[in-house]
Amino acid sequence: MGLLDGQVIGTTKLIDHGPPAKRFNLVIVSEGFKSNELGSFATLTQQFIDFLFSSQPFDSLKCAFNIYRFDVSSTESGADNPSACGGDGTFVATRFDASFCNGGIQRLLCVNTLDVISVVEATVPEWHQILVIVNSTLYGGSGGNVVVTSIAGSWKKIALHEMGHSVFGLADEYPYWAGCAIDTNRNQYPGTEPMHPNITTCTDRNTLKWKELVLPVTPIPTTTNTDCTKCDAQPDPCASGTVGIYEGAYYYHCGVYRPEYQCMMKNLSGYCAVCRRQIIVILSVYLDNCYAPVFGPIPLFPAIFVVLILLIFVTILLLLSLFTEKVKCLVEKLLFIIRNCLKGNKNPCISI
């Protein structure tokens, strides 16, 4: 199963915001879709793109992205579902050998990542992240340079969660490994301060890695697990979105803390403030310094008046030689409006 069980049908650049060398290049690849099912894959890809850019903070970072769709057919639909983890024992012939039950965990869905990377690099060598969508309605996914997700009910959130690991260096914030009622060796975190930006062992307000986001009235610790033999089930004692330190994260019941009660990295809810901050830091390098303003078309005679006024502003700025980067950008925006006032501009990602 593998190379002979499918083929690359074609590649489409769905989002084009500039040269690949200057943008974050996300590649979305099909797995376990027969050739007559690739239309469904195209629909799923667009659904993910819509979800991505409607989610914080990606809604304000769209201009950083190029997105490609790789249509790859498989001989059969789905993914392997070994009986070792309680699956039905199904094995199917797919291009990238997708399978559940990796590492003895049913939800851990993986593919042949080296094979996926080889296929992608042949067309998009500048890729930064690959997302493989597997044609299975069983819940599952995995992270890494190649993020994998099934199409179970919350699959789009699974994909964002896994990208949180591989692209943005975020840790899992849930306080278990196999499950709260299953784990027997996850009572107390045994390690030192983690390198991840969204978990900590620190309980000192003044040295906390996300201290700038904690209000003075928020207690530190914000929650404490009183029974470290199990996951903490207490409700959130603070208003939703409060940043503090909540005990239970990184697969352990106690001794390690997360920034908010809920987060994409804990239970597939929206990214918490600390995670959003990290995402912005990582993706900001793929944004240009100055973008054209968005505005509607201006009728001819009002446009003449607008152009005259803007030319006065541009002349004043030039005469004063206020050439900081912000002023340079402002001048470019004014000149853009002058050049395009009759037709307007709807594209917020035109770099100037």
Helix percentage range: 25-40%
**What share of the residues does DSSP label as strand, in percent?**
5-15%
Report the principal-axis shape. Answer: flat
* Number of helical elements: 7
Describe this structure as you would to a colleague:
The chain is of the alpha/beta class and 352 residues long. Strand 2, helix 1 and strand 3 form a beta-alpha-beta unit. It contains 7 helices and 8 strands; from the N terminus they run E-E-H-E-H-E-E-E-H-E-E-H-H-H-H. Helix 6 (300-320) runs antiparallel to helix 7. The termini are far apart. Helices cover 25% and strands 14% of the residues. The radius of gyration is 24 Å and the shape is flat.
In short:
This protein has 352 residues and is α/β, with parallel strands linked by helices.
Which features would summarize this protein structure in a list?
352 residues; alpha/beta
Topology summary:
Elements: E1 6-15, E2 24-31, H1 38-52, E3 65-74, H2 113-121, E4 129-134, E5 141-142, E6 146-149, H3 155-166, E7 246-249, E8 252-258, H4 264-267, H5 273-283, H6 300-320, H7 325-340
Parallel strand pairs: 2-3, 2-4, 4-6
Antiparallel strand pairs: 1-3, 5-6, 7-8
Helix pairs in contact: 6-7
